[in-house]
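Hi Prof. W.,

I finally got the DUF58 domain-containing protein prediction working! I wasn't sure whether to trim anything, so I left the full sequence exactly as given:
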Amino acid sequence: MPGVFASVSLRLRQWLLSRRKPVDSWTLTQRNIYIVPTRAGLAFCLTVLLLLIASINYQLNLGYALTFLLAGSALASMHMTHASLRGLTLHVRPPAPAFAGDDAALEIIVTNPGAARHGVGLAIEPVDHNPPAFAWADITAQGQSSVHVAISTSRRGRHALPALRAESRFPFGLFRAWSVWLPAGQVWVWPAQETPPPPLPEAEPVAGNQRSRNEQNRSEFDGVRAWRRGDSLRQVVWKKVAHTGEMVSRDSTEGAGHHLWLSWAQTRQADTEGRLSRLCSWVLQAEAKELAWGLRLPGQALEVGHGSAHRDAALQALAEWD
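And this is what came out:
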């Protein structure tokens, strides 16, 4: 019977989640906060009931006083547990991409318009029988607090954000108040990197390339271009900046006779995921070395370039490869 009850409860939760629409922010109100007694709360209620029966049976005035004192404390606890969540507003910052198999960090901003809240937990709403892993925090009064939750990633691609659960058992743990929110947003999961990272392939010569000048006739400022957004500080020619005051960067493709192409055929892996993992490692290596590189996949190609935008475009293409 416990297994049947757990299975029915799981199916009911999944059905309720499927009917929700993703929203950017979630304000906790009386309409979307649920509260039930915990196991400790049920045991406490049973204890109070036994005290009441004993007090009636033996006509104990002090027993009546203790019984109603405990019952009043439980009712006050229920009100405080519900008030720990009521009025809070949640929204999620866009998550940073993660590699398949690693956890993606999800930052949740909690806005509190009232007094300080204690014992507020946030977790990914479970889709199986495993209990949620809560990140507990105290929310400052009339301010904002950030809570970080880890998202498990197993498949590459672009995925919708999972449902989140906000929960509180403050102050005595007799009652559990919670609310479920389906945030709007997506997280990129890039292919897993190959370890250890393989060496980069050889650069390919550019067809028809000719040097217009001998190397000894080049000036110290040859091979530079105007600074572009995304260029690293190591590419900036600071000596040129000091002379002219103009921000310029080294052009790694200027006068070069070879281009580095990272192609599907060069991976020499048997399975698709292995090829994608190797290409992912190559992309990160080429970008770390500040090389100009391009990506070739069956049916599509990313022209030679460099920079964080170029890297992200390549990794997204690998993540969505089918």
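Residues 61-85 form the longest helix (25 residues). Does that look reasonable to you?

Thanks,
D.
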